[in-house]
Amino acid sequence: MSDPTHAGKPAAPQKTLRSRAWFDNPDNPDMTALYLERYLNFGLTREELQSGKPIIGIAQTGSDLSPCNRHHLVLAERIRDGIRAAGGIPMEFPVHPIQETGKRPTAALDRNLAYLGLVEVLYGYPLDGVVLTIGCDKTTPACLMAAATVNIPAIALSVGPMLNGWFRGERTGSGTIVWRARQMMAAGEIDYQGFVELVASSAPSTGYCNTMGTATTMNSLTEVLGMQLPGSAAIPAPYRERQQAAFETGKRIVEMVEQDIKPSDILTRDAFLNAIAVNSAIGGSTNAPIHLNAIARHVGVELSVDDWQTHGYEIPLLVNLQPAGEYLGEDYHHAGGVPAVVSQLISRGLIREDAMNVNGRTIGENCRDKPILDERVIRPFDSPLKEKAGFVVLRGNLFGSAIMKTSVISEEFRERYLSNPDDPDAFEGKVVVFDGPEDYHHRIDDPDLGVDAYTILVMRGTGPIGYPGGAEVVNMRPPAHLIKQGVHSLPCIGDGRQSGTSGSPSILNAAPEAAAGGGLALLKSGDRIRIDLKTGAADMLVPEEELQARRAALEADGGYRYPASQTPWQEIQRGMVEQLDEGMVLKPAVKYQRVAQTF
Ligand code: FES
Ligand code: MG
Predict the structure, then answer these.
(1) Considering only CA atoms, which residue is closest to atom 1 of ligand 1?
(2) Domains observed in the chain
(3) For a Cys staple, 148 with which of 293, 299, 337, 471, CB 3.0–4.6 Å?
(4) pTM for this model (two decimals)
């Protein structure tokens, strides 16, 4: 068993490497010979495989189908150099591709599939440690979840964000520009050609989304969790420091195998609470609770959706990145990246400083003295962009829980919906309900819908079961006629997710979803609902007897209807997936913990 306190001290006495069971087992010459011979056929030597050098996997998430992570194909060369330099042997292998924007019906469907595949590889092959190549949204949690389950020494390497996007002298950020372009096209300011040109300007190089979307969020939080080298998360993909970080990561994983530092030594509850605090300070994605709760479930750490409000709500927004702010990934790196943000929180006692990093030191030791290098991009704790930037957890007869990112509530939104001096934290309105994104796209501009500036838009049928994987569709633009009148957003509520690149103050991740019998299934267009951000109450203003009658009628009708599965995996996952508040994990998977230790 490992002792986390030995980290950073001289290497513990060499323990038997896991890979020896394959490559050097004199008690079983038959199998040893069989395991060994095929790995020699491309030029590895017996001496290499039998000399006690750690075998290090490189879990490759980049491919032509995964452009956000494709630069890992290049970085892998420097990871290999680092592994070799430290005395290990690299073995690269592919991870099931997950491309956030390219995968239909949604990339989130594939997070658990990639997780399952990676667990099997890490468990079943002669690997002593692994480098997880992370980046695009779901690649990060898929890799960390698998490393948590198997629990062999693991270190993550971010591919890094793209360079800043520019259009006519202004920064254009991934995803965020799409919301803006949609409004401009709906208002007739640009046409189809102009739309595509504007959006494409935001992707000027290799790397992941340059906004504070789910990718930058999850890569930052992976550093805070301690699973990648300090200061490495924010380095843009094409920078030379990114390649240098790849080399250092390769070197470090070999030392981690020697010191037997495993994910369970790093992914402690303290580490997760640090990540929750930093998520507020960076203005992180509403997908973060789903993914972090999933990683916690797989490593066996208690973490609930309420922890996000308890430990995150009061933390101010310090990072001025789109969509909440102005800047982009390169600016974040130049301003000091994750260590500068952590250091600000440390100065207020908001970080559990003893949590360990893969480099063998604590987060306190790594970050305590790290300065902000550009205060326009990372604000000092005393002059934040917003106070109380965390998530609020809401509950009521609409759902068991849902979250809202209050830091992105705009002035326009506040004035229209939260301006009652007697009740400044609550709003109430009539709903229009959509069953899935197709229904929404089909009807939103229909004048008969009667959407006005005070309507609340509801999207249901978009949770892990209803829309397999959970769709990023809760933030809905208002009808074009309202946008022309200057109404840029309406309150949105739903059982799906929202892109981290969207600046909408939606109420999302509602659990249980309509397809799992949640209250949203009972809602009808024309009902009134009331949301109180202070008490966290979210209710349909429909009498209880009426709700009971609706539930009985729905059940008699066979329950809430959703489209049939189109692939085997959609059906398999639908049969065993947990709700968004529980991390959308596969129910049977979470009981398998630290499985490599059973060897
Ligand atoms: Fe891959 Fe944003 S789409 S990182
Ligand atoms: Mg996304």
Answers:
(1) 136
(2) 53-164+204-368 (3.40.50.2300), 166-199 (no CATH), 392-557 (3.50.30.80)
(3) 299
(4) 0.95
